[in-house]
Amino acid sequence: MFTRRATLAFSLAAALVAGASAMAFAEPEHTTYTPAAFQAAQHAGKPILVEIHASWCPVCAAQAPILSELLSQPQFKEMVVFRVDFDSQKDAVKSFKARDQSTLITFKGTTETGRSVGDTHKGSIEALLSHAI
Fold it and tell me: In angstroms, rounded to a whole number, what is the distance separating the alpha carbons of residues 60 and 39?
């Protein structure tokens, strides 16, 4: 007979597995980062999210489903998302003055509107994204 704790643990594990599967299909669409693409989005006055990401980073993995959910909302439909790889795009990481992976930086056109590092709280990430629109 399962105890309540065991049942909850099993339910949590099942939800995590289901969430990981859903997450693989629910990634937000990213625009390939190049300085030219970033500048074009800036000069077009677009709301922009730059996501400094590392595939091995557990915080980045925790941010992914939150970003996916938020970026699917109508108010963020115009946001251009650039994912910068922390390990392979060192020049871009340096140009954004990012010291750590899991850094989120928002822009409205050419103006930086906010940044956060290591944030996995939906409300504060939503507030960060809102500053760019």
Answer: 25
